[in-house]
Amino acid sequence: MPILCLIRHGESLWNKENRFTGWVDVPLTDEGREQAKKAGEILKSLDIKFDIAYTSLLSRAIETLEIIIRTLGYNIPVIKDISLNERHYGDLQGLNKDKVSEIYGKEQVKLWRRSLKVRPPNGESLEDTQKRTIPFFERAIKGDLELNKNVLVVAHGNSLRSIVSYIENLNEEQILNLEIEPAVPILYDYDIYNKKFYNKRILKI
């Protein structure tokens, strides 16, 4: 039975500086690289052989995946697609989150960051992000699962929130409280015959 593994990239420079990142291409920190290595070690201990991997076009996700693959010790075909990019934070990109909260209030910033439909200024809502991630997920990622392939996806907090909320059919309140931690593998088994995901496992050290 095929396995889907979702992993958010490790800590980036702007994560460390508490800044909105979005589509700005910032690198991993040394801590982020260590987090990626630990994620790879967790997966290696499970003795799962992945058949294909997906990531975004942003270097923090690509490097996280490269470190995981090196740690696993075998080659995996990699597909990079813009559909898996982080949500676009518009005018907030590059700004410190605490300073933005001081200006607009914590509740407004929480809505921009966590809600389904509220867009940051000139940016994407999570619902907007789903409009690109979910069709790609259905066509490519789920398509490989249907072929009985184990699939590894390394992407971003919000592109993965959109996928997890779709897989688990979460309501808006549940989506508001959904967090995806850096470099923590989330595994689902996929039932090819019933076309359902089940047995969710969040693998922390």
Automatic annotation (TrEMBL):
Catalytic activity, reaction form: (2R)-2-phosphoglycerate = (2R)-3-phosphoglycerate
One GO MF term: phosphoglycerate mutase activity
GO biological process: gluconeogenesis; glycolytic process
Associated pathway: Carbohydrate degradation; glycolysis; pyruvate from D-glyceraldehyde 3-phosphate: step 3/5
Active site: H9, E86
Site description Transition state stabilizer, residues in chain: H156
Top-level division of the source organism's lineage: Archaea
UniProt KW Isomerase keyword: yes
Binding site for substrate: 8-15, 21-22, 60, 86-89, 97, 113-114, 157-158
Cross-referenced Pfam families: His_Phos_1
Function of the protein: Catalyzes the interconversion of 2-phosphoglycerate and 3-phosphoglycerate.
Entry-linked NCBIfam families: pgm_1
Entries under PANTHER family matching the protein: PHOSPHOGLYCERATE MUTASE
Family listed: Belongs to the phosphoglycerate mutase family. BPG-dependent PGAM subfamily.
Stated name of the protein: 2,3-bisphosphoglycerate-dependent phosphoglycerate mutase
Species for this entry: Nanobsidianus stetteri
